[in-house]
Please model this.
Amino acid sequence: MVEIKKGQHGNEVIVEENPLSKWLFTNTKSAWIWLILRLYIGYTWFTSGIGKVTNDAWTGENAGMALEGYMMGVMSLAEEGGVAGWYAWFLETVVIPNAAVFSYLVAWGEVLVGLGLIVGFLTGISAFFGALMNMSFLLAGTVSSNPIMLIIAMLLILAWKVAGWYGVDRWALPALGTPWRVRRKGE
Model:
């Protein structure tokens, strides 16, 4: 349904949400779908991050070694045209010289994104940072499970209002000002 409202500066056209999107992204009855997807990628991020946080080459005395080794492999792909030039430049001038810092960011970022998704706390924000990491890994030439995780993360971002219903967001989002309301029969 298209609704035309008289606005301050003329007419505004309001395009209503289609029934499927409205149900998926705004109705708490769809929350079980998001719970399954949240737990899947949350567990994947968390276990991957814990593996890095407990690895000396990521966050210990030798922090940055693992990331720097990985980046050297990425740079060899870049020479063959397998990585976008601008991204290769970013890796070479920003990431590799600061490999230890980025190593901690990746390892703890994976843990925190995983925890956020598992417990359903700030689900949309957690999914956004997961998608950002997935995109970074894809730009670096690592396919693996990244495309699937990126798609799930994008869906969780779209469903942010209900994706954490079975989680901490059920209480956190209203406390932060999300305007939830109970729809009465007949509305």
Observations:
- The mean pLDDT is 90.
- The chain is about 65% helix and 5% strand.
